[in-house]
Amino acid sequence: FQLCEAWLWCASRSTRNAGKGLWTRPKHLHRRASDSAKIRERAKGRDVMLNTSNTQKAVAYVRVSSLAQVRKGQGAESQAARCAEFARMKGYEIVRVFEDKAVSGSLVERPGMKTMLAYLRKHRREQIRVIIDDISRLARDLTAHLKLRTSISEAGGVLESPSIEFGEDSDSQLIEHLLASVSAHARNKNA
Protein backbone atom coordinates (compact mmCIF):
# COMPACT_ATOMS: atom_id res chain seq x y z
CA PHE A 1 0.00 0.00 0.00
CA GLN A 2 2.79 2.46 0.89
CA LEU A 3 4.67 1.55 -2.28
CA CYS A 4 1.54 2.24 -4.33
CA GLU A 5 1.07 5.65 -2.68
CA ALA A 6 4.74 6.50 -3.26
CA TRP A 7 4.48 5.56 -6.93
CA LEU A 8 1.31 7.62 -7.34
CA TRP A 9 2.97 10.59 -5.68
CA CYS A 10 6.01 10.35 -7.96
CA ALA A 11 3.87 9.87 -11.06
CA SER A 12 1.81 12.92 -10.19
CA ARG A 13 4.71 15.31 -9.48
CA SER A 14 4.42 16.88 -12.93
CA THR A 15 0.93 18.22 -12.13
CA ARG A 16 1.45 19.01 -8.47
CA ASN A 17 1.81 22.59 -7.28
CA ALA A 18 4.72 22.11 -4.88
CA GLY A 19 4.27 25.48 -3.18
CA LYS A 20 0.70 24.85 -2.05
CA GLY A 21 0.46 21.08 -2.10
CA LEU A 22 -2.55 21.26 -4.41
CA TRP A 23 -3.31 19.63 -7.71
CA THR A 24 -3.51 22.10 -10.57
CA ARG A 25 -4.55 22.08 -14.18
CA PRO A 26 -1.87 21.88 -16.85
CA LYS A 27 -0.63 25.39 -17.67
CA HIS A 28 -2.11 25.39 -21.18
CA LEU A 29 -5.63 25.21 -19.66
CA HIS A 30 -5.23 28.26 -17.40
CA ARG A 31 -6.70 31.56 -18.55
CA ARG A 32 -3.99 34.19 -18.47
CA ALA A 33 -4.54 37.79 -17.33
CA SER A 34 -3.50 38.92 -20.82
CA ASP A 35 -6.46 36.93 -22.28
CA SER A 36 -8.92 38.89 -20.12
CA ALA A 37 -7.25 42.16 -21.10
CA LYS A 38 -7.60 41.26 -24.81
CA ILE A 39 -11.30 40.51 -24.35
CA ARG A 40 -11.86 43.85 -22.59
CA GLU A 41 -9.89 45.70 -25.30
CA ARG A 42 -12.01 44.15 -28.08
CA ALA A 43 -15.17 45.17 -26.21
CA LYS A 44 -14.18 48.86 -25.87
CA GLY A 45 -16.50 51.23 -27.67
CA ARG A 46 -19.13 48.57 -28.20
CA ASP A 47 -22.37 47.87 -26.42
CA VAL A 48 -21.03 44.62 -25.04
CA MET A 49 -21.85 43.75 -21.47
CA LEU A 50 -18.96 41.98 -19.77
CA ASN A 51 -19.54 39.89 -16.70
CA THR A 52 -16.87 41.29 -14.40
CA SER A 53 -18.13 39.25 -11.45
CA ASN A 54 -17.35 36.00 -13.22
CA THR A 55 -17.30 33.97 -10.04
CA GLN A 56 -17.47 30.28 -10.82
CA LYS A 57 -20.19 28.53 -8.84
CA ALA A 58 -19.35 25.37 -6.95
CA VAL A 59 -21.02 22.82 -4.71
CA ALA A 60 -19.39 20.62 -2.10
CA TYR A 61 -20.24 16.96 -1.67
CA VAL A 62 -19.41 15.35 1.68
CA ARG A 63 -19.97 11.77 2.82
CA VAL A 64 -19.33 9.88 6.02
CA SER A 65 -19.93 6.16 6.15
CA SER A 66 -20.50 5.34 9.79
CA LEU A 67 -23.24 6.28 12.23
CA ALA A 68 -20.56 6.77 14.91
CA GLN A 69 -18.98 9.54 12.79
CA VAL A 70 -22.38 11.21 12.49
CA ARG A 71 -23.05 11.03 16.25
CA LYS A 72 -19.60 12.38 17.15
CA GLY A 73 -19.78 15.09 14.48
CA GLN A 74 -16.59 13.85 12.85
CA GLY A 75 -15.87 13.98 9.17
CA ALA A 76 -18.61 15.90 7.39
CA GLU A 77 -17.76 19.28 8.88
CA SER A 78 -14.03 18.92 8.26
CA GLN A 79 -14.68 17.78 4.68
CA ALA A 80 -16.94 20.79 4.07
CA ALA A 81 -14.31 23.12 5.54
CA ARG A 82 -11.57 21.72 3.32
CA CYS A 83 -13.83 21.99 0.25
CA ALA A 84 -14.63 25.62 1.17
CA GLU A 85 -10.93 26.44 1.56
CA PHE A 86 -10.15 24.86 -1.82
CA ALA A 87 -13.00 26.83 -3.43
CA ARG A 88 -11.71 30.05 -1.89
CA MET A 89 -8.20 29.40 -3.22
CA LYS A 90 -9.59 28.72 -6.71
CA GLY A 91 -11.87 31.78 -6.60
CA TYR A 92 -15.09 29.72 -6.60
CA GLU A 93 -18.27 30.50 -4.72
CA ILE A 94 -19.78 27.53 -2.83
CA VAL A 95 -23.53 27.81 -3.35
CA ARG A 96 -24.62 24.52 -1.72
CA VAL A 97 -23.25 21.65 0.34
CA PHE A 98 -24.72 18.21 -0.29
CA GLU A 99 -24.31 15.54 2.39
CA ASP A 100 -24.70 11.82 2.71
CA LYS A 101 -24.27 10.72 6.31
CA ALA A 102 -23.94 7.09 7.38
CA VAL A 103 -23.96 5.94 3.75
CA SER A 104 -21.53 3.37 2.36
CA GLY A 105 -19.13 4.47 -0.34
CA SER A 106 -19.94 1.33 -2.32
CA LEU A 107 -23.48 2.55 -3.03
CA VAL A 108 -24.41 4.66 -6.05
CA GLU A 109 -27.98 5.44 -4.96
CA ARG A 110 -27.63 8.01 -2.17
CA PRO A 111 -30.11 10.73 -1.15
CA GLY A 112 -27.55 13.57 -1.09
CA MET A 113 -26.01 12.48 -4.37
CA LYS A 114 -29.43 12.28 -6.06
CA THR A 115 -30.28 15.79 -4.86
CA MET A 116 -26.93 17.11 -6.07
CA LEU A 117 -27.32 15.52 -9.51
CA ALA A 118 -30.81 17.06 -9.85
CA TYR A 119 -29.34 20.45 -8.88
CA LEU A 120 -26.56 20.08 -11.46
CA ARG A 121 -29.04 19.14 -14.19
CA LYS A 122 -31.15 22.19 -13.33
CA HIS A 123 -28.06 24.45 -13.61
CA ARG A 124 -26.35 22.56 -16.45
CA ARG A 125 -25.35 25.67 -18.40
CA GLU A 126 -23.31 27.00 -15.49
CA GLN A 127 -20.94 23.99 -15.45
CA ILE A 128 -20.88 24.04 -11.67
CA ARG A 129 -17.76 22.67 -10.01
CA VAL A 130 -18.35 19.70 -7.71
CA ILE A 131 -15.73 19.70 -4.98
CA ILE A 132 -14.99 16.58 -2.97
CA ASP A 133 -12.44 16.48 -0.15
CA ASP A 134 -10.91 13.20 -1.29
CA ILE A 135 -11.55 10.56 -3.94
CA SER A 136 -12.74 8.14 -1.23
CA ARG A 137 -15.57 10.54 -0.34
CA LEU A 138 -17.08 10.08 -3.79
CA ALA A 139 -16.93 6.29 -3.69
CA ARG A 140 -15.10 3.34 -2.16
CA ASP A 141 -15.79 1.03 -5.06
CA LEU A 142 -14.31 1.37 -8.55
CA THR A 143 -17.59 0.64 -10.34
CA ALA A 144 -19.48 3.11 -8.14
CA HIS A 145 -16.75 5.70 -8.67
CA LEU A 146 -16.96 5.41 -12.45
CA LYS A 147 -20.78 5.54 -12.45
CA LEU A 148 -20.87 8.61 -10.20
CA ARG A 149 -18.11 10.36 -12.15
CA THR A 150 -20.08 9.79 -15.37
CA SER A 151 -23.36 10.91 -13.75
CA ILE A 152 -21.78 14.15 -12.51
CA SER A 153 -20.33 14.87 -15.94
CA GLU A 154 -23.58 14.07 -17.75
CA ALA A 155 -25.46 16.37 -15.35
CA GLY A 156 -23.15 19.24 -16.34
CA GLY A 157 -20.86 19.22 -13.30
CA VAL A 158 -17.07 19.34 -13.28
CA LEU A 159 -15.44 17.26 -10.54
CA GLU A 160 -12.55 18.81 -8.58
CA SER A 161 -10.67 18.02 -5.39
CA PRO A 162 -7.77 19.45 -3.40
CA SER A 163 -6.17 16.00 -3.37
CA ILE A 164 -6.37 14.93 -7.03
CA GLU A 165 -6.66 16.53 -10.43
CA PHE A 166 -9.39 14.90 -12.50
CA GLY A 167 -8.19 14.95 -16.09
CA GLU A 168 -9.25 13.31 -19.30
CA ASP A 169 -5.77 12.29 -20.47
CA SER A 170 -4.66 8.70 -20.04
CA ASP A 171 -2.14 9.45 -17.24
CA SER A 172 -4.75 11.31 -15.15
CA GLN A 173 -7.27 8.54 -15.65
CA LEU A 174 -4.71 5.92 -14.64
CA ILE A 175 -3.94 7.75 -11.38
CA GLU A 176 -7.66 8.31 -10.69
CA HIS A 177 -8.54 4.65 -11.27
CA LEU A 178 -5.62 3.46 -9.14
CA LEU A 179 -6.67 5.74 -6.27
CA ALA A 180 -10.30 4.61 -6.61
CA SER A 181 -9.08 0.99 -6.49
CA VAL A 182 -6.96 1.73 -3.39
CA SER A 183 -10.10 3.20 -1.73
CA ALA A 184 -12.04 0.05 -2.59
CA HIS A 185 -9.22 -2.10 -1.22
CA ALA A 186 -9.18 -0.12 2.06
CA ARG A 187 -12.99 -0.53 2.41
CA ASN A 188 -12.78 -4.29 1.81
CA LYS A 189 -9.85 -4.69 4.16
CA ASN A 190 -11.59 -2.78 6.98
CA ALA A 191 -14.92 -4.60 6.52
Outline the structure in words.
The structure is a single chain. With 191 residues, this protein is α/β, with parallel strands linked by helices. The protein contains eight helices and six strands. The chain has helices at 2-12, 33-43, 67-72, 76-90, 111-122, 135-138, 142-154, 170-190; strands spanning 16-17, 22-23, 56-64, 92-101, 129-132, 158-160. The strands form two sheets. The chain has a four-stranded parallel β-sheet with strand order 4-3-5-6, with helices on both faces. The chain has a two-stranded antiparallel ribbon with strand order 1-2. Strand 1 and strand 2 form a beta hairpin. The longest helix is centred in the last third of the chain and has 21 residues, at 170-190. The protein is globular, with a radius of gyration of 18 Å.
Summed up, the helix count is: 8
Termini separation comes to 17 Å
Question: What string gives the helices and strands in order?
Answer: HEEHEHHEHEHHEH
Overall radius of gyration: 18 Å
Overall strand count: 6
Give a topology summary.
Layout: H1 2-12, E1 16-17, E2 22-23, H2 33-43, E3 56-64, H3 67-72, H4 76-90, E4 92-101, H5 111-122, E5 129-132, H6 135-138, H7 142-154, E6 158-160, H8 170-190
Parallel strand pairs: 3-4, 3-5, 5-6
Antiparallel strand pairs: 1-2
Task: Describe the structure concisely.
It contains eight helices and six strands, in the order αββαβααβαβααβα. By secondary structure, it is an alpha/beta fold. Strands 4-3-5-6 form a four-stranded parallel sheet, with helices on both faces.
